[in-house]
Amino acid sequence: MKINGYEIVINVLSDNLTPQEAIGRMAHNLREPEQTKKIKYLKRSSKNNKYYIQNQYGALVDVSQTQTTHEDIDKIIQEKLSKFKADYEKQKITDKNGKAKKRAWQKKMTPFTEILLTFGTQRPKEAKEGLNKDESAFINGLDMLPRIMGFINGYCNKYGVECISACEHNDEKTKHWQIIFENYDYANHTCIRRNKTQMSKYGKELQDMGADAFRNIAVRGIRGSRAIHQNLKQMHKTEISYENEKALKNEIDSGVKEYVNENFEKIKPLIGKSYYKISKDGM
User: Fold this and answer.
1) N or C: which end of the chain has fewer CB within 10 A?
2) What share of the chain is helix, strand, coil (3-state, %, to 5)?
3) What integer pLDDT is reported at residue 264 of this predicted model?
């Protein structure tokens, strides 16, 4: 699809999370009341957001019409964590002295992954500039749910994990999805970790999966792009910075024009270009 002649582009970002980080992200994504109070960049009511949480049978269920509490979120993450830990600590390792002992779970381990799906356009933009009003309105009007569920199913099948929550945010400038998956490999009894080469491959796979899920709606970002990928918090900071800089520029331009109009007189000679000279009052 195109908006004002430019293709819509899908961006897929990932971040591995500790259990505590996962609780915080889920609270943010599901608009837990105390977390929502801290969000300063919401443009609209959160009532039109869509929230899905994994039930006891492993399926995602719509909980958009109910308020998920911090206790609910903590329970979901802790139940997942207890299963990961139980599997991990069953395994034995041999220490440097040749003695066998059980593995011990570390707080810094990251058994959860958050995936962020955002949308842009191929329109050339100024540094820090995001989507304009027309582009955001067009993207906000799209029904993404079937495509998102296709992406989620594809991700779960490819990496052998389960989806814990999926949230469509319609209360910010532009619609986007934040999804939390498991990041634990039961076959190898450990959290999924990727080295630099594997991360590069994983990042390309995510972009391809996003483009495939949104075929005929959005295209993949340019392969080999040197663009800096930002998380959502960084995106909001950049957007606010751009808007503040633009407001300052407009204020300066307006001030200069006002000063010129007050202190200079425009002269239109019979021959040659118009010019300004200091008016008598301007002196």
Assistant:
1) C
2) 40, 25, 35
3) 78
CA atoms within 13 A on the CB side of 209: 24
Burial of 245 (0-12, 13-18, 19+ CB in 10 A): middle
Question: Residue 244 — φ and ψ, nearest 5°?
Answer: -65, -40
Beta strands in the chain (DSSP E): 2-3, 6-17, 50-54, 60-62, 92-94, 100-102, 112-121, 163-169, 176-182, 184-185, 190-191, 219-220, 264-267, 275-278
Cα(13)–Cα(221) distance, rounded to whole angstroms?
12
Q: Are 25 and 17 in contact (CB under 8 A)?
A: yes
pLDDT attached to residue 223: 52
- How many CB atoms neighbour CB 221 within 10 A? 18
Nearest Cα neighbor of 236 from 168, 141, 170, 172 is 172
Instruction: Please say if the pLDDT value at position 21 is more than 70.
Output: yes
C-alpha 78/C-alpha 144 separation (Å) is: 30
Paired with 186 in beta bridges are none
Residue 22 phi/psi, 5-degree rounding, is -65, -40
Neighbouring CB atoms inside 10 A of 22's CB total: 26
CA 107 to CA 121: how far, in whole Å? 40
